[in-house]
């Protein structure tokens, strides 16, 4: 069986790996180069417990208040296209408490074996760069942590066991000296993981090449069609190639290739920004400042800082003012960092699906499959989604209906 995977982000590359492991011959098509999209500058946090849909009553309320404020961390674009309007309609419909709990539970069932799956990749020669570390959230007071505590307590009763510690300001700073005095309460979730995203991608590429998987950069796919029992990949340069099956894993570009294959769930871009900075001492691994909507992750001997969610089309122009804004927010939160050392300012598009869940499985067209829409959690969910899809394509098992791309 020869399978084409379109898109060399973390999702496409892990899908290629599991397909190859199950004996398929695999070719990867990438319009630019691997990690051209969200898979390069993200925060690299592997947090299945946090991998829930964005659509939720609190987020809806927050989005309504702040959506059109330019300075807000979550913003809408100036113009609303049809895809974005459909996305917002889905987002609102899925933001009830009942629907959020149901979708969150479906996501936990998907994500709960991700640490095992990362370990599996590692034991089969892929250097995922994963480090086991705590995930620490810093709050200005115990009260502002209440909703996260309630969320974690609910999850630990129903879906996943967790090792959670509550820290007062003194203990918080003892463990994480970079956290500024203003923060008086911490929640530390132990035994989580993070990766170095650019290295994860380049190591996946190296492992695939060792397994004779061809990675074709500068190969933009224009269309995918099914002709007489085979699938055909048509490239922008006029060439075409024939395969037994095709996986579309093009992140926030998904809807451009899936419209003819019955996929109606909109996937829009949630553009985020990041930068790297020197720090006087490393953190234990991952920090999160919910009130500032800011996340930090150890990145070599530096810190990668990320924030913002600018919703819109994947190609919308990036806002250069965001660099200053990101730096201003981060400076208030981590004043001890060396702000003259800022580099690697980056932006990338999270593939946000209307109901916040990945699109994982077959389309209306025989032989054409989808793996996208992982939103804020594509690195966390990459190996579990890839394994499920590779199993489906090679006839080993079905995928839960919750992720059906035709829903
Ligand atoms: C600021 C930020 C922080 C984040 N932090 C985390 C985190 O801590 N943990 C976590 O789990 N997730 C995180 N994410 C989310 C995560 O980065 C994404 O969910 C994930 O990278 C999506 O991977 P992907 O492979 O689906 O998409 P992408 O990485 O965007 O890859 C899609 C690829 O498809 C290619 N492509 C598109 N169209 C075509 C075409 N027609 N032909 C050929 N190639 C094409 C693109 O060039 C691109 O390389 C974060 C995202 C952002 C923006």
User: Please, what is the CATH homologous superfamily?
Assistant: FAD/NAD(P)-binding domain
In the CATH hierarchy, the architecture is 3-Layer(bba) Sandwich
Biggest pleated sheet: 10 strands, mixed
Distance between the termini: 28 Å
Backbone structural class? alpha/beta
As for the number of domains, it is 1
Q: So how many helices?
A: 11
Shape: globular
How many beta-strand elements? 19
Q: Could you name the CATH topology?
A: FAD/NAD(P)-binding domain
Give the DSSP E fraction (strand runs of 2 or more residues): 25-35%
Written as H for each helix and E for each strand, in order along the chain, the element string is: EHEEHEHHHEHEHEHEEEEEHEEEEHEEEH
Low-confidence segments, ≥5 residues, pLDDT <50?
none
CATH class: Alpha Beta
As a whole number of angstroms, the C-alpha radius of gyration is 21 Å
Bound molecules: flavin-adenine dinucleotide
Task: Calculate the mean pLDDT score and round it.
Answer: 94
Protein architecture, described:
This protein has 407 residues and is α/β, with parallel strands linked by helices. It has helices spanning 10-21, 57-66, 82-93, 97-111, 114-123, 146-158, 169-175, 197-210, 255-258, 321-333, 378-393; strands at 2-6, 25-29, 45-46, 74-75, 131-139, 164-168, 185-194, 214-216, 221-227, 230-235, 240-243, 245-248, 267-278, 286-289, 294-299, 302-312, 338-353, 359-362, 368-372. The chain has a single domain (2-403), classed as FAD/NAD(P)-binding domain. Strands 3, 4, 5, 6, 7, 13, 14, 15, 16 and 17 form a 10-stranded mixed sheet that branches. A 6-stranded mixed sheet has the order 8-2-1-12-19-18. A 3-stranded antiparallel sheet has the order 9-10-11, with no helix packed on it. Helix 1 (10-21) runs parallel beside helix 11. The radius of gyration is 21 Å and the shape is globular. The mean pLDDT is 94. Bound molecules: flavin-adenine dinucleotide. Flavin-adenine dinucleotide (FAD) is lined by residues 6-12, 29-32, 36-39, 42-45, 220-221, 249-253, 257, 272, 274, 306, 348, 350-351, 372, 374-380.
